[in-house]
Amino acid sequence: MLGIISFVGFTLLVAVISYYATRSTDEKSSDGYFLGGRSLTAGVIAGSLLLTNLSTEQIVGLNGSAYTDGLSVMAWETLAAIAMVITAVFLLPRYLKGGLTTIPQFLSKRFDVATKTITSGLFLTGYVVVLLPVILYSGSVAISGMFNVPELLGVSNATALVVCIWGIGIVGSIYAIFGGLKAVAVSDSINAIGLILGGILIPIFGLMAIGDGSVFGGLETLMNTEPERFDSTGNAGQEVPFATIFTGMMLVQLFYWGTNQQIIQRALGAKNLAEGQKGLLLASFLKILGPLILVLPGMIAYHYFEGGLASSDLAYPELVRAVLPKPFVGFFAAVLFGAILSSFNSVLNSSVTLFGIDIYKQHINKEAVENKVVKVGKIFGICLALAAMFIAPMIANAGSLFNYLQEINGIYTIPIFTIIVIGYVTKRVPAIAAKIGIFSGSILYIISQFWLKNKFVGDALDEARANGIIDPAALKLLESEAYPHYLHVMAILFVSNIIIMLLIGKIWPRKEAFELEYTRQVSIEPYKYVKQVGILVVLIVVGIYIYFAK
């Protein structure tokens, strides 16, 4: 009961603070609703970026990967810091100079409206069909299990799951639809503090559990008993082989932190360029510490349970259940609930933004006044939320689905990132090149990962089993050798797309060179130490890799 009281209390506190912080924002204009009135400061941007990124499937999933592969999976966290630096130095100044509300808006100016619409459609499809239901489902499984909702309400597991899905969906929708970006960002920044504090408690109590009450004793025990697992350079057959951090891994990070509407929308709402850059740099420093919450607990769980868990996905929840003192459970559940809400309402808010600005205003009602666009966007958001709440219970296995989606996201991430890069670094590549780039990149990736890979890997595994090889580790290594890692495939297609678009630009260049106009929405005077701080972040990340390289 104490856990439930602390859970409800902390959740209500966040809601009240968010309400008072957003009372004065004009939510009737597009900038007010979609970008928080372009008033977000560095601390709010940093907190919102981190909480938007974190979700239950990442907290559970990445720790599960660390349970299996050790420290090498930290690449998903540490390399994000470098991507944020590049975004702060190169992309954000151009976004704010052009006064963008959505990333596809730039594509309309640089190429044409059709390119923007295609890109918005890809973003919306990825968000609505995949992300929203998965976030709801996985979050509901976590909350239902933590509070033992079936027993609490006297219902079946399936009914408890539906109750949690609708509870999370309704609360998240209120934040996202009726509060706009500023309500999302403010609640995110508060929850960021809670998640960092709560997240750190897990490895602290975990290390104390294996170190006879001493945190440093536990760390020494962990490093001495399994030194090979503290290797920053992943091997073949693991989730992140070392070579991939120089190819597709960096491209995925740049797409996610620099061009993904769900993420970059926080920085687009900055009151000026300097605040946006400081927010990104602050988030990059904090991201370097991410492995403490998202990797170390998984490694502790491997030692604590002696590698004997039935599934790696159980590593984090089992460790929490085993080491976290009961009085902290309610607070940690509230923090986790905040992470679930953040992911849900951030995706929902971005979807509403894309629909209102890029589809409704552009194609359905070009004469619509701003408050009409916001109103229609809210209605669309309610429909999306309801659809996600109905779809979510149908997802059978969110954990394995999430890991699978990391691979299939390449269908649209690399093509979109390619045309944005070409759009900014060239001036005469035409719109037809962008359309060809999107479709060729998507189709080639689908052929590679869902036809050629299945054929080559399937043949190799069949031959191995015919020769009597049945060891899972040996088969996993063989699978990695039979076909290039999907991150390498992304890099190959990125370079191929670049070449195709440049060739088209050479043969059929646009008549007039593109010039990015300054819309004067906000000041684009940069933070004076942006390059120095950025270099420091990069050096820290490289230093970490060198220190832990075996």
What features would you describe in this structure?
There is one protein chain. This protein is mainly α and 550 residues long. The chain has one domain (2-548): Sodium/glucose cotransporter (Up-down Bundle). The chain has 24 helices and no strands. The chain has helices at 2-22, 30-35, 42-53, 56-69, 75-97, 103-110, 113-147, 149-153, 157-210, 215-225, 248-258, 261-268, 273-288, 291-294, 296-304, 315-323, 329-364, 370-391, 398-408, 410-425, 431-466, 472-482, 486-507, 530-548. Helix 7 runs antiparallel to helix 17 (329-364). The longest helix is centred in the middle third of the chain and has 54 residues, at 157-210. The protein is globular, with a radius of gyration of 23 Å.
**What's the mean pLDDT score?**
82
Number of H- or I-type helical stretches = 24
> How many distinct domains?
1
Top-tier CATH class: Mainly Alpha
The number of strands is: 0
Shape: globular
- Please outline the major beta sheet: none
Unreliable spans:
25-30
Radius of gyration: 23 Å
Q: Please provide the ordered H/E string of secondary-structure elements.
A: HHHHHHHHHHHHHHHHHHHHHHHH
CATH topology: Sodium/glucose cotransporter
Annotated CATH homologous superfamily: Sodium/glucose cotransporter
> How does CATH name the architecture?
Up-down Bundle
Task: Provide the helix percentage.
Answer: over 70%
Distance linking N and C termini? 48 Å
Structural class: mainly alpha
